[in-house]
């Protein structure tokens, strides 16, 4: 389901480089997120309650969808060793149980002197944008990345 780890250093990044994760949202994902966070809002957990809302059915937590961005940042772009600095989120539409979310993260800007990358983040269900925003991350240079256990083949 989730991609294998990919270790990139700052020097590997270019504007336009992107990574996509595809995840179909299961009821168990939403229930698990509720358990971990304590957010037991019935719009996420009770079909009976959710049927009486404008959505008509259960929806995933917005921050669960956003956490899929974190999965991309921590595993693929830029990957292990990157430090999340900030994230903006715009929730555009609900994500329902059974929806397949495409999470696209793209390098939008690089600041070499600070080893920072601004990443455009978009989550779509079909052609509809359900969440967008941007993340800032600090990315280690090759000199630090080569010292990583992942770089030495210790991953897995």
UniProtKB/TrEMBL annotation:
The keyword Lyase applies. SUPFAM superfamilies: Thioesterase/thiol ester dehydrase-isomerase. GO terms for molecular function: (3R)-hydroxyacyl-[acyl-carrier-protein] dehydratase activity; fatty acid synthase activity. It comes from the Bacteria. GO terms for cellular component: fatty acid synthase complex. Pfam families: MaoC_dehydratas. Residues 23-111 form the MaoC-like domain. One of its GO terms (biological process) is fatty acid biosynthetic process. PANTHER family: HYDROXYACYL-THIOESTER DEHYDRATASE TYPE 2, MITOCHONDRIAL, HYDROXYACYL-THIOESTER DEHYDRATASE TYPE 2, MITOCHONDRIAL-RELATED. This is (R)-specific enoyl-CoA hydratase.
